UniProtKB/TrEMBL annotation:
InterPro entries: Aminoglycoside_PTrfase, Kinase-like_dom_sf. This is Aminoglycoside phosphotransferase domain-containing protein. Residues 10-180 form the Aminoglycoside phosphotransferase domain. Pfam families: APH.
Length: 240
């Protein structure tokens, strides 16, 4: 299979090629086997072997969730130091995408915006700015469709956003991704730093709200009412 990139300004092709080669070296049955790459082409391409399985969708079964957790933990055991992927850095810029933008006109989205603005004066930003005690190689794009179920196990694809991360943040990114909203007990499946998990969930919920506001890139891909639902979720996390 050859992947042709529609955008590569952030080095998506370089990051994915480096990640696939590194992960395949340490966990060869977890990700597609990298075959070749044309990184200087326009558009750049990465060719990889096909892996068996169908994308997860809807509400995964308990068996599938057990396999997802096993796959994620396998990824976390891969050494996080990888040529082509930079060192750890904080994610605060993703929260700023909401609060440095214009305030929504009104309603629950405006209420969530105001609560998010106040969040910056609390302890969470300082907690997330500090380097974690444990780092892992993070997938960072946990759309459920990127987890392929073959009836027995799960493999992971799409490493354009792969980065050095930490377990709590990785669980937070997954829990707050719209595709995992039907899995209420997801966070309980991982043993991670709870204060950091909650702080990161708040930050990534802000990021999703920023994408769902009028003019945002995610609003057209989601049904009406998603923005209000996301605003309510952010308020709930901030009130937790």
């Amino acid at each position: 299979m050859t992947k042709r990139y529609t955008s590569w300004q952030r080095g998506e092709h370089l990051r994915e090629w480096a990640a696939l080669r590194h992960i395949h070296r340490h966990a060869p049955d977890l990700v597609p086997r990298p075959l070749s790459a044309k990184l200087a082409a326009r558009p750049p391409t990465v060719t990889m072997a096909l892996v068996p399985g169908e994308p997860l969708a809807g509400s995964p079964t308990p068996e599938q969730m057990t396999a997802v957790v096993a796959a994620v933990r396998t990824l976390w055991r891969v050494p996080p130091v990888c040529s082509g992927i930079g060192p750890w850095s904080d994610d605060l810029e993703f929260g700023r995408r909401l609060t440095t933008g214009p305030r929504p006109a009104g309603g629950i989205a405006a209420e969530a915006f105001d609560a998010a603005l106040a969040w910056w004066n609390g302890p969470d930003p300082a907690l997330l700015a500090g380097p974690p005690t444990v780092t892992v190689l993070g997938h960072r794009d946990p759309n459920a469709a990127n987890y392929l179920w073959d009836g027995r196990r799960v493999r992971i694809v799409d490493f354009e956003d792969c980065a050095v991360s930490d377990p709590a943040t990785e669980v937070a990114i997954m829990a707050e991704h719209l595709s995992w909203r039907g899995v209420d007990a997801l966070c309980a499946l991982f043993d991670v730093d709870q204060p950091r998990l909650l702080a990161a969930r708040r930050l990534w919920a802000m990021f999703w709200l920023s994408l769902l506001l009028p003019g945002g890139p995610a609003i057209a891909r989601n049904p009406p009412g998603t923005t209000e639902t996301q605003a309510a979720r952010l308020l709930d996390l901030l009130d937790h």
